[in-house]
Amino acid sequence: MQKIGSKSLRLRCVLAAGALAIANVASAGTLNGGVFQISYDNPDDLLSGLTLGDGAITSYYVANYFDKSLADNMNVSQMLGVANDTYPAPATLSFDINPSSLAGTGIPFGSGGRNNKATTLTWGSSQDALTNSSTFTASGVAGLNGVVMTRGSFTGTLLSGDYQFGYVAARNNGVNSGWALTNNVSFSSTTYDTRNISVTTDGDKLLFTGELWYSASTSAFLFGGDGVSQAGRAGTFSLISPAPSAVPVPAAVWLFGSGLFGVMASTRRKRKAIPA
Fold first, then answer.
1. Residues 39/236, Cβ–Cβ less than 8 Å
2. Nearest in space to 158 (alpha carbons), one of 63, 39, 55
3. In sequence order, what are the residues at sequence separation of 6 or more whose Cβ sits closer than 8 angstroms to the Cβ of residue 104?
């Protein structure tokens, strides 16, 4: 009986160890949906606080924002014809994270100047339990659905969007993190580098925040830069997957109201208890 019990115990230990090994393999993270948010420091004056060189433009601002509901139904020509503030930009721009395949989704790519990217971002099991980490090792990109229109003291209109967000080792210079946001509307060009990142993961859950800085190429093109230096910070970003659930307003109001009612009722009882 004793020997049978020992064998049974050893078998259970082996099975448990195997299950743990399988769990560790399965815990590698994959980005499945979510939202990428951009908050500009100065959306009405994108030049504010930047270092400008010779030949820089004198005004630059966000004229419109085409979120997924709009961007999925418009090509570049249609967007360029839209007047300022037809689709005014909110304080925080929210880009939907694309699925792993765009076929049959209705998301525009490869025609009309639009070129959304599929999401292929994955990370290993060693990266799936980070807390406010300043480094993050992953492969692939997050494809982001949405287009920003900017105008200013130049002829025409600039569109930037159909972004891909991913790691580029060559862009990690010890100041920039290497994670970059690349435009894919009409042409491909890195618009922003990132700094001061913070990454928290829990399996497939990902919270990624940091600062957006105009890339050296963008700085040279718009702000009179030398093609090496960066003009300055554009704003902040956050990548949240899965997307946060909105709290229903009526429920929030009800909770607040019931709490307020409780405080008022308690106050009234205390007043009645005070002798005349």
1. yes
2. 63
3. none
Number of residues that make up the chain: 276
* DSSP state at residue 105: S
Structure tokens belonging to residue 62: 């966000």
Q: Which two tokens stand for residue 222?
A: 């718009």
Helices (H), 121-240: 216-222
Which residues are CB-contacts of 95 (< 8 A; sequence separation ≥ 6)? 35, 36, 37, 38, 67, 68, 144, 145, 146, 161, 163
* 135-151 residue pLDDT tens: 999 999 999 999 999 99
pTM above 0.70, yes or no: yes
Q: Cα–Cα distance between 218 and 154 in angstroms, integer?
A: 15
Q: Which pLDDT band holds residue 37 (cuts at 50, 70, 90)?
A: very high
Task: Give the pLDDT of residue 10.
Answer: 52
Q: Are 87 and 142 within 8 A, CB to CB? A: no
The strand pairing partners of 182, in sequence order, are: 164, 190
Is beta strand 141-145 parallel, antiparallel or unpaired with respect to 164-172?
antiparallel
State residue 245's pLDDT score: 81
Write the single-letter amino acid at 233: R
Going 39 to 165 to 59 to 148, the CA torsion angle's sign is negative
